[in-house]
Amino acid sequence: MLTYPQIDPVALSLGPVQIHWYGLMYLVGIGGAWWLAARRLHRFEPGWSRETLSDLVFWVALGVIAGGRLGYVLFYDLGSYIADPSLVFQIWKGGMSFHGGLIGVLLAVWWFSRRQQVGFFRLMDFIAPLVPIGLGAGRIGNFINAELWGRATDVPWAMVFPTDPQQLARHPSQLYQFALEGVALFVILWLFSRKPRPTMSVCGLFAVCYGAFRFFVEFFREPDAHIGYLAFGWLTMGQLLCIPMILLGAAFIWWGYRKGDVRHETVS
Predict the structure, then answer these.
(1) pLDDT tens-digit profile of 242-253?
(2) Annotated binding site, which residues?
(3) TM segments (predicted)?
């Protein structure tokens, strides 16, 4: 069994102000995606300025935060928030949903694409390879916070997390998700999008791969205590939300290749 590294979730304290590693991971994810987007901007839309890209990053980041928070409320703990609506704004207590964040991003991109008169799916194909940076950084933040840990196990790399009231050896599922949703997904999408691909195929591949990776890791991750297992007594909320994501992603890939609308910008 491995020893969990005792990392203070607070990276820096300035009097009453505390800067948490989890918040810094959001900055890493947004900043990394912004930098890579700037590198390939001339291949995507040569007429766009850096200011236009900055606007896109702002609206996407807003979609991630607002959608992630509201998604958690709706999908994972609606009863508590109905009882006390003020909890919605208490983001320092945690509670973010990837699937909610995805919906927020889709809405932000839809609005921005109409404003800039750029195809929605073409813009989504541009954004999709950048998303794993934020996903990977977020999972490192979860690990530092010792939250969203895995199920009890006796594998040699199991860890006892300080936030676990039962103090059981568990899968470090946050690191599994970092490796799959962050590193592996980034490599797959980056390599796939280096060549001209039909519109919808890159974001479709993102949906399929993320959904499959998340569905797999959920078998090692402890389900939310207040929800537990849902369908068939073994599927979690995360897995149920991934099923339509995988199906839609496969449909996007199929439809993109059927239409054959191949763009010629590639990742640098």
Answers:
(1) 999 999 999 999
(2) 139
(3) 19-36, 56-76, 96-113, 120-140, 175-192, 199-217, 229-255
